[in-house]
Amino acid sequence: MNDRAKQALLPAGLGDLLPPEAEHEEAVARLLMDRFTSYGYDRVKPPLVEFEDGLLDGIGASVAGETFRLMDPVSQRMMGVRADITPQVARLAATRLTGAPRPLRISYSGEVLRLKGSQLRPARQFRATGVELIGAAKAAMGDAEVILLAAEAVGVAGISGLTVDITAPALARAVCAGLAVPAAVQSPLLAALDRKDAAAIDEIGGDAAAILGRLLAAAGPAEIGVPALAELDLAEPAGALAQRLVEVVELVGQAAPTLSLTIDPVERRGFEYHTGVSFTLFALGVRAELGSGGRYLTANGEPATGFTLFMDTLMQSVPGPSGRRRVFVPFATPAGPGQALRADGWVTINGLIPDDDPRFEAARLGCSHVWLEGAVQALDEDEVHDG
Amino acid sequence: MDGTESLVVAVPKGRILAELLPVMKGAGIEPEPAFHDPAVRQLSFATNIDGLTLIRVRSFDVATFVAFGAAQFGVAGRDVLMEFDYQEIYAPLDLAIGRCRLSVAEPAELATTDDPTRWSHVRVATKYPETTRRHFAARGVHAECINLSGAMELAPRLGLCRRIVDLVSTGGTLRANGLVEVEHIADVTSRLVVNRAALKTRPRQLGEWIQRFRDVVDGQDPG
């Protein structure tokens, strides 16, 4: 490989966003953030890098294995690059914003960096956009609010075929604890649940097999799954978790009757720090999840919920950029017309040197129009292609 | 929307297919005649169900096609699922076909003097390097794997290594090559596997297919 080729190659999982994708991602993020702000979620901007012991404290511990570390030459302490913004918001809520009135509504949009991508989603750096609702007592309405907001925001971004999968990641463990499943059995049992491997659950589940099998069977469209889940007689605390799941599904269903809802009482993957009702957003034809969220506790024990949308995946299902109108303004045109055009929503491309054929130059630079003889003139179809 | 989109089903070539066809037939899927013609080069086949296409690929590739959502569901052996451990695959149903086991084998003469509990390092020829490493690592044995994609049984005889990890069904191939099983890693059967995002976004359609296969399996005599 020659030197040029080496320089062009970026590390695995890192990439450039070029025009028009970079602008498009920004525009979609702005749409999402505007929607969050309109529901009173105020924006914060925590730093990219923090001291490791703070960043990985509390719920941050679950992303420790995904976090890049570097040594701070100034303080000589280890720092970490954020792999998730939620723990940073949880830190803010537990420190600088303890005096702010509850419930605290926070939104954010920023880049995160992870040690490795997954096979399905190789990106190691991506933009995370989301909200956190902190101190929402234990209200089911809090869970419903963030689910509805996530669905609404994704709809505003132009994505269709959305499905929200509502889960209770702590439920399986609670059922195992309630039935005193030995620790040695519990971990392979939970792994089997993650794969929905009914055969393995029957084989190793013992006393828990029957109830876990029925929880597994309750996964599916909400209108089928919820009655199946409600029928189960679960010991506490599993019963309360299932009850809350049912309540939240009903609240979301009432507020958004056309939203496609599925439930999955035993889904746990991707919910390492979640303690209560959680959810994942999928879109028809998109193989990775658009985003996920759910209930957790901040460092000082406040109940919180929220969600994060993964902009890299989200952008795969957003309709392409509509593209603003571009007009070429030839060299030596006075400043006035350009200002008027920009004020009118045009993108102006100014000629820097005199051109013999401004129409050709306009087409070469990707413009659909040219400013000639004191007016905007559209290029012909064949001119655009020749350029 | 749910229920109307086309489906791609990945099935493995070879050994399992003969056992799988009656199960698929029971679930209501019958491939076009070309599927049974050994001479055709075609890889994707229409079925009696509109919008349902079968693809016939290597057994390891079934998991890859399903994990990436290129096929919505398929049939893969537990050996393949253990080896790859894809997050995006659910394995909701044991089809109880393709029954065999994943085992460690070594030459018969070695087995008479060997004590597997005292190993600290083994060199193994296998097409399951991940499963093999995990199996041995669980008891502190470092496994150095030589990746082969077939004819594992030759490796010990030709001095490539002394042990192999491979699927064993009757044990005939092992015996013919002077090998004996010394350790059992896992029992293997074929599973119905489903892509996670497909199951979430098309729950009714895929749920119905899973149920059809479950009915077939439940209707069979156990064992």
Concise description?
The complex is a heterodimer of chains A (387) and B (223). Chain A has 15 helices and 16 strands. Chain A is an alpha+beta fold and 387 residues long.
Any overview of this molecule?
The complex is a heterodimer of chains A (387) and B (223). By secondary structure, chain A is an alpha+beta fold. Chain A has helices spanning 3-8, 21-38, 52-55, 86-94, 140-156, 171-178, 183-194, 198-204, 209-217, 222-231, 238-255, 311-317, 335-343, 358-364, 381-386; strands at 42-43, 49-51, 69-71, 78-81, 104-113, 125-134, 162-167, 220-221, 260-264, 278-283, 291-297, 303-310, 326-329, 347-350, 369-372, 375-378. Chain A has three domains: 17-155 and 276-318, Bira Bifunctional Protein, Domain 2 (BirA Bifunctional Protein, domain 2), CATH 3.30.930.10; 170-266, no CATH class; 326-386. Chain A has 15 helices and 16 strands. Chain B has helices spanning 15-27, 59-67, 78-84, 108-111, 129-137, 154-157, 172-176, 196-201, 203-219; strands spanning 7-12, 44-46, 52-57, 73-77, 89-94, 100-107, 121-126, 142-147, 163-168, 179-188, 190-195. In chain B, strands 2-3-1-4-11-5 form a six-stranded mixed sheet, with helices on both faces. A five-stranded mixed sheet of chain B has the order 8-7-9-6-10. By secondary structure, chain B is an alpha/beta fold. In chain B, β2 (44-46) and β3 (52-57) form a beta hairpin. Chain B contains nine helices and eleven strands. The chains are: A alpha+beta (387), B alpha/beta (223). The interface between A and B is medium-sized, with 27 and 27 residues.
The CATH architecture of the largest domain in chain A can be given as 2-Layer Sandwich
Largest interface: A-B, 27 and 27 residues
- In DSSP terms (H or I, runs of 4 or more residues), the helix count of chain A works out at 15
What's the domain count of chain A? 3
- How are strands sequenced across the largest beta sheet of chain A? 1-5-6-12-11-10-7-9-8
State the fourth-level CATH superfamily of the largest domain in chain A. Answer: Bira Bifunctional Protein, Domain 2
**Distance between the amino and carboxyl termini of chain B:** 39 Å
- CATH class categorisation of the largest domain in chain B: Alpha Beta
Structural class of chain B, please? alpha/beta
Termini of chain A, distance in Å?
A: 34 Å
CATH H-tier superfamily of the largest domain in chain B: Periplasmic binding protein-like II
- The CATH class of the largest domain in chain A is Alpha Beta
* Coarse morphology of chain A: elongated
The overall number of domains of chain B is 2
So what's the overall shape of chain B? elongated
The major β-sheet of chain B equals: 6 strands, mixed
- Count the beta strands of chain B: 11
Radius of gyration over C-alpha positions of chain B, nearest whole angstrom: 19 Å
Structure classification of chain A:
alpha+beta
Query: What is the rounded Rg of chain A?
Result: 26 Å
User: Approximately how much helix is present in the residues of chain A?
Assistant: 25-40%
